[in-house]
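Retro notes
What went well: the complex prediction finally ran end to end.
Inputs used:
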Amino acid sequence: MTVRAANAEALRRLLAAEPVLTDCVSAVEAIGLEPGVVLHAGPPIGWQVMCAPVQGAIVGALRYEGWASSEADALELVARGGVRLEPCHHRGAVGPMAGIITRSMPVFVLENRAFGNRACATINEGLGRVLRFGANDETVLARLAWLRDEAGPLLGKALRRSGGIELRTLMAQALQMGDEMHQRNVAASSLFVRALLPSLVREGTGAALERLTDFLAGNDQFFLNLAMAAAKAATDSLLGIPGSTVVAAMARNGAEFGIRVAGCGARWFTAPVNTPEGFFFPGFGPTDANPDLGDSAIVETLGLGGMAMAASPGAARFVGAGGVAEALRITEEMREITLGEHPYFRIPAQGDRGAPVGIDVRRVVTTGITPLINTGIAGRKAGVGQVGAGVVRAPFGCFTAALEALAADDG
Amino acid sequence: MTVRAANAEALRRLLAAEPVLTDCVSAVEAIGLEPGVVLHAGPPIGWQVMCAPVQGAIVGALRYEGWASSEADALELVARGGVRLEPCHHRGAVGPMAGIITRSMPVFVLENRAFGNRACATINEGLGRVLRFGANDETVLARLAWLRDEAGPLLGKALRRSGGIELRTLMAQALQMGDEMHQRNVAASSLFVRALLPSLVREGTGAALERLTDFLAGNDQFFLNLAMAAAKAATDSLLGIPGSTVVAAMARNGAEFGIRVAGCGARWFTAPVNTPEGFFFPGFGPTDANPDLGDSAIVETLGLGGMAMAASPGAARFVGAGGVAEALRITEEMREITLGEHPYFRIPAQGDRGAPVGIDVRRVVTTGITPLINTGIAGRKAGVGQVGAGVVRAPFGCFTAALEALAADDG
């Protein structure tokens, strides 16, 4: 197969994806996570070189699972090799920021009905002090317990009753409503809640329903994790198309940025991550920013987030003084490194032209333009949580490494 | 007071409005509607000259109230003077299309917290065969009974528990999400449902809650009536500012288009309505269109709908081949006949410039530009229901008549 034919096939699969949200169950049920396994965002990484927010989140998860009774206990468990660290991506899952998933955590289950593959993601915890930004105090663990014991099971029951919620149409509509589905998910979250509502009130009652609806009403980023799982379900179908130079995953672990390429299967190509720039919450500044982190860049891999910046005047505020004009320019720039336009994800401000999709490592290397990613910014210190939001570029080195590997395979 | 000072005051009141949705109660509780009174859209009009959809809706309302047992019975009741017809606007209310309100119908109650006045609107019935488009069969009456007996009371309980839902911020956000809140209300409806949800699940249970959530999940135009009531609450505060040439209401009864002007209080200035142009549902065409109808043009009076066309790529589809470019042009044109820009209702596609607001009858007369209104299109025959959606211009004659009256007052 020529590169051209391989990439046409990759693009076909990417654009034909039909992500349907079907369930919410524990990670052990969904993907068979074993005791002692902790999934994290980004490409593989060892404990010693992990950044503080990821380490903090892991400590929190070990306490949440009852595998450790204190931070000291957790650190000791890690030190003696009692924890197996693995990327979410290796288990068909994705997680924002630290991306921690352990076996009892509830995860959304999505099916890509065009190709039969599945993907999972955790439930978005909301803003403030949350595990994904490295916070691990009692309020964080109590929320995780509630998600496990009450919210997750109720969401699962409602989803099973609904027969599945088709996300492609919902996401297309949210893009028309100013979400780029990385920095901004208020439209998608609202559409999703309204779509789930009839099933939710049939399965939930009393205080459990009240707590869940309070949570859904208060979390504008609720849909982020679903957009990520939808993108994961779409992009996983690309892995293993010989010769294809299309990017099938982008993910960061706080130290390295990793990409996967359709023609190279599950292999990662990594380079040191950049640190995002943007706006900081009061009391924080650029020196507080942790380097780029999270599996959420999977949405850019599907043409959302920074790729679709022009669709979101709200997200455009994070690119600085350029505003909407700069947002339009960014999406135009992203067209230089992509092979297609999404037939469903269309951008009103660009005459309903499709979002740029199908990042080609050859084009990145030739143009020197790297994908731009919208992202939250974690505090560098464990336990601080989110300190801002902004944008970051994927490092060039991943793409040159991938292209070399593709050339070697070809040779 | 000079005209300039009077208009500055009118604009100040218009822009300072704080509509808060506080309750849903019967029209007899909200506005003391008497037995035998039927409120209708637009300026005053007699039965004989009413168009068929409004007559059909009145027949339906008389049967719904139990004041008539059949169509023949209803027509006989009207013929012998047993029904008092009155504009919604005269009772602090607004209704879309036929705009029929009778005493047992539930109405939303909004407070303009900046000025203490209130406004009401019916609950949007959804699409298809509905009373407001003149349909009056058993399914229509059954839905009205359900709104009265179950949905309305539950919405009222939820709203009272919520302490009121502030609509200005919600509407500003919906405008950022592609709603112009006349033709398109999917964002506002979704945001509203999510905001009401925590109170709704605390007040509703079982089948009643299920039926209401099904209804809310399925009606993308649910918010239209709330936008209308918000606009009514804002614009009513203008009535009676001596010398002001700012339009305080626009409404149509299917025969005449009427405006009220701040400087002339409750007086109507009317001219024959135009017939909307746009897209028709399969099987219908321009010859099936009823002339322009409904109180919904109150949203244009507040800078929404056609005035804010540039905010809504979705609504722009109804202006024909020009699409988004034409939508931008229309909003620019509307700036020529308005005195201000709304500080909260901003348009992303125009650099977040405020929507044009404060229609000045002098500017309309001087420029020859009349307000453009987004609208549903009712079938001309009673019982047919909606046949399409499009745009229509307010007739020039209302504005010249108002300006003559203002000049006479001044003289």
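What we learned: The mean pLDDT of chain B is 96.
What to try next: split runs per interface for comparison.
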